Protein backbone atom coordinates (compact mmCIF):
# COMPACT_ATOMS: atom_id res chain seq x y z
CA UNK A 1 0.00 0.00 0.00
CA UNK A 2 2.83 2.38 0.80
CA UNK A 3 4.95 1.58 -2.25
CA UNK A 4 2.35 1.14 -4.97
CA UNK A 5 -0.68 3.13 -3.78
CA UNK A 6 1.33 5.97 -2.17
CA UNK A 7 -0.67 5.69 1.06
CA UNK A 8 0.56 7.86 3.91
CA UNK A 9 2.66 5.83 6.41
CA UNK A 10 0.02 5.75 9.16
CA UNK A 11 -2.99 5.47 6.84
CA UNK A 12 -3.55 1.73 7.03
CA UNK A 13 -6.49 -0.21 8.38
CA UNK A 14 -6.21 -3.96 8.01
CA UNK A 15 -8.70 -6.66 8.89
CA UNK A 16 -7.41 -10.20 8.69
CA UNK A 17 -9.81 -13.11 8.88
CA UNK A 18 -8.69 -16.68 8.42
CA UNK A 19 -11.10 -19.29 7.10
CA UNK A 20 -10.86 -23.04 7.49
CA UNK A 21 -10.37 -25.11 4.31
CA UNK A 22 -13.63 -25.41 2.45
CA UNK A 23 -15.07 -22.12 3.76
CA UNK A 24 -14.10 -20.20 0.61
CA UNK A 25 -15.45 -21.37 -2.72
CA UNK A 26 -13.22 -19.84 -5.42
CA UNK A 27 -13.39 -21.56 -8.76
CA UNK A 28 -11.06 -20.67 -11.61
CA UNK A 29 -13.76 -18.91 -13.70
CA UNK A 30 -12.50 -20.66 -16.82
CA UNK A 31 -9.02 -19.11 -16.67
CA UNK A 32 -7.17 -22.39 -16.16
CA UNK A 33 -6.21 -21.57 -12.57
CA UNK A 34 -5.38 -24.34 -10.14
CA UNK A 35 -6.95 -23.44 -6.81
CA UNK A 36 -5.97 -25.09 -3.53
CA UNK A 37 -7.07 -24.83 0.09
CA UNK A 38 -4.58 -21.93 0.29
CA UNK A 39 -6.80 -19.57 -1.69
CA UNK A 40 -6.42 -16.01 -0.39
CA UNK A 41 -8.77 -13.10 -1.02
CA UNK A 42 -7.52 -9.56 -0.47
CA UNK A 43 -10.07 -6.75 -0.57
CA UNK A 44 -8.87 -3.16 -0.78
CA UNK A 45 -11.08 -0.11 -0.26
CA UNK A 46 -9.56 3.06 -1.67
CA UNK A 47 -10.07 6.42 -3.31
CA UNK A 48 -8.63 7.82 -6.50
CA UNK A 49 -6.05 5.28 -7.59
CA UNK A 50 -5.36 4.95 -11.30
CA UNK A 51 -5.69 1.83 -13.39
CA UNK A 52 -1.89 1.67 -13.53
CA UNK A 53 -1.64 1.78 -9.72
CA UNK A 54 -4.25 -0.95 -9.39
CA UNK A 55 -2.46 -3.19 -11.88
CA UNK A 56 0.84 -2.52 -10.10
CA UNK A 57 -0.77 -3.54 -6.81
CA UNK A 58 -2.01 -6.84 -8.29
CA UNK A 59 1.47 -7.59 -9.61
CA UNK A 60 3.30 -6.53 -6.43
CA UNK A 61 1.05 -8.56 -4.14
CA UNK A 62 1.43 -11.64 -6.33
CA UNK A 63 5.21 -11.23 -6.51
CA UNK A 64 5.79 -10.52 -2.82
CA UNK A 65 3.46 -13.18 -1.46
CA UNK A 66 4.75 -15.72 -3.96
CA UNK A 67 8.43 -14.95 -3.28
CA UNK A 68 7.79 -15.33 0.44
CA UNK A 69 6.17 -18.72 -0.16
CA UNK A 70 2.91 -17.52 1.38
CA UNK A 71 0.44 -17.64 -1.52
CA UNK A 72 0.60 -19.39 -4.88
CA UNK A 73 -0.21 -16.97 -7.73
CA UNK A 74 -3.19 -19.13 -8.77
CA UNK A 75 -4.60 -18.83 -5.25
CA UNK A 76 -4.51 -15.03 -4.97
CA UNK A 77 -7.68 -13.06 -5.64
CA UNK A 78 -7.55 -9.26 -5.25
CA UNK A 79 -10.61 -7.01 -5.33
CA UNK A 80 -10.46 -3.22 -5.20
CA UNK A 81 -13.49 -1.16 -4.24
CA UNK A 82 -13.61 2.59 -4.73
CA UNK A 83 -15.44 5.04 -2.53
CA UNK A 84 -15.42 8.75 -1.78
CA UNK A 85 -14.45 10.96 1.13
CA UNK A 86 -18.01 11.06 2.44
CA UNK A 87 -17.95 7.25 2.82
CA UNK A 88 -15.60 7.38 5.83
CA UNK A 89 -15.84 8.03 9.54
CA UNK A 90 -12.74 7.17 11.54
CA UNK A 91 -14.45 7.60 14.89
CA UNK A 92 -16.39 9.93 17.16
CA UNK A 93 -19.31 10.00 14.71
CA UNK A 94 -17.65 12.49 12.38
CA UNK A 95 -16.74 12.38 8.70
CA UNK A 96 -13.16 13.57 9.15
CA UNK A 97 -12.42 13.95 5.44
CA UNK A 98 -15.42 16.28 5.13
CA UNK A 99 -14.85 18.23 8.34
CA UNK A 100 -11.22 18.95 7.42
CA UNK A 101 -9.79 16.92 10.32
CA UNK A 102 -7.99 14.81 7.72
Structural class designation: alpha+beta
CATH architecture of the domain at 40-99: 2-Layer Sandwich
Query: Quick check: average pLDDT?
Result: 93
- The Cα radius of gyration reads 16 Å
- CATH homology-level superfamily of the domain at 40-99: Macrophage Migration Inhibitory Factor
Distance between the termini: 19 Å
Secondary-structure element string: EHEH
Q: At the first level of CATH, what is the class of the domain at 40-99?
A: Alpha Beta
In spatial order, strands of the major sheet run: 1-2
- Could you tell me the CATH topology label of the domain at 40-99: Macrophage Migration Inhibitory Factor
Supply database-style keywords.
elongated; Macrophage Migration Inhibitory Factor; 102 residues
Describe the protein in words.
The chain is of the alpha+beta class. It has a domain at 40-99: Macrophage Migration Inhibitory Factor. The chain has two helices and two strands, in the order E-H-E-H. Strand 1 (40-46), helix 1 and strand 2 form a beta-alpha-beta unit. The two termini are 19 Å apart.
